[in-house]
Prior knowledge:
The complex is a heterodimer of chains A (258) and B (253). Chain A is mainly alpha-helical. Chain A has twelve helices and two strands. Chain A has a two-stranded antiparallel sheet with strand order 1-2. Chain A is elongated. Chain B has one domain (2-252). Helices cover 87% and strands 0% of the residues of chain B. Chain B is built from eleven helices and no strands. In chain B, helix 1 (2-17) packs across helix 5 (92-124). The longest helix of chain B has 34 residues, at 46-79. Chain B is globular and about 60 Å long. The chains are: A mainly alpha (258), B mainly alpha (253). Chains A and B meet through helix 2, helix 3 and helix 5 of A and helix 3, helix 7 and helix 10 of B.
Amino acid sequence: MGGLLFFSGPVSRSGAGDARGIYFLPSAGYLRMVTGSFRPFFANLVCIKGVLELTDPVPDRQTYLLKVFKTAIELDPRLLSAYFLGGMVVPVNSKDMPGAINFLEEVRELNPRAWQIPYWIGFNYLQIGQHEKAAQYYQKAAALPGAPQYLVTNQAMLYYRANKPEGALMYLEGLLDSIKDPRSLELIKRKITWLKDLITLDAKTREFKARFGSWPDALDDLVNRGLIAEIPQDPFGHGYFLDKRGAEADIRVRSKFE
Amino acid sequence: MRKIFYFALLTVKQATREKSFWLGWFLLIALIGFALFLGELTAGEKEIVLRNAQFSFIELSGLFLIVFGFIYGFYREKETRLQEVYLTCFSRPVYLCGKLLGYIVSCGMYILLASLLCSVFLWANHAFIWQLFWGSFSIFLKLSILCGVSLVFSCLFEFPLMASVSTLFVYVSGETAYNAFKIIKESAHPVSKMLFTAVYHLLPSADKVDFKYPALYGDSPAVTRLLLVTAYAGAYVLFTYCLANVIFERKKN
Lengths: 258, 253
């Protein structure tokens, strides 16, 4: 026993224990063939391999890890954590996002009924500032069984952020007939009022510009010049204001949220 | 009929006294502990990992029980001349039928108790769903077929190692047969395609009796499929019994 311990340390230090990671995985087709009815269990093991390698200095990290999680998904298409890890955890910055979005797009067809996958694609689009795309994917997610209620109504906000309040209004008005829950219905109605206010104020601001040759300094100018009777109450934010920070085409009426 | 049940009961008693039966339990408990570590390693899917591990480990320890317990027990009976004593009281078909029934009942008991033990473990980890018992039932059907196969090889070979290895090979080929068959269907010559189709249908292919996967996610199998699969397993066990009977008769004569 003593001799064993005496030799064990030097042997480890001599490099025998220096096991570098083996960043290799057989193809999903091959694994599917040899694993038989243990396929879902192997999917778990492949997924665990990916989790353990997330923090490793893997060469060509994103390509390799996405392959690992894709293999796990192909072995068990219902293993949602593999979709999540590949699409949401592997990308570490905005440069990785297109790859993660492509990954989720590719594997989505293997589990078309999971609302989470289009939701995560939408979330990634949101991260890179593509609000309209995000809204489209949230809409797809909301249409799938089991999707939470907030996905149904929150898209209006994304369209708003994408400077498309008309799109949000159309979407919410389309929902009115299908929503049965009175609280959700009330929320949707308030959002519709809010969007209508934004659209009206926007139109009046542009009318002001056409009539007087310059943008109004504030929304009060619309009331002072008789274009509207009063500034409507904002049901969500702390009042409407004219956002003139961007280029001419981006000048919009917005809600104060901060 | 009474004699068959009597001998089956005797086989069950024998099987539960075997060391390998208790080794099977030890293996299962060790694997359950391993599963707990695996569950901790999977972000967000602990339940699925634990359920998957339950099925895989029950099946593997059940396979261990058949390959090392039942087969070696059969040969020990032969070596100690206990078989000859039995054959003075029971006819050969009754002896084999009781043996097979005893194996199947022992296997079923083991799977049921192991499933209950795993259920407690899953319940403690918030991963239990009652549909998992459908998966256990599918393992029972698969291993019942394998009990029949092990009896055939036990009658056929002189050495237990040969019978064990052959049973193991049948199990592995049954597990991989479906995908191998898919490749053959794509590429092979019509004659070899026919040959492989026959081999595929003759093997106890796992894909035919397996409904572990839907059970894993809480889905129950359709009643018609359940009945069909049970009937298939019953027919297969009967087929192996007849085969074992023919071999046993020929060997004795």
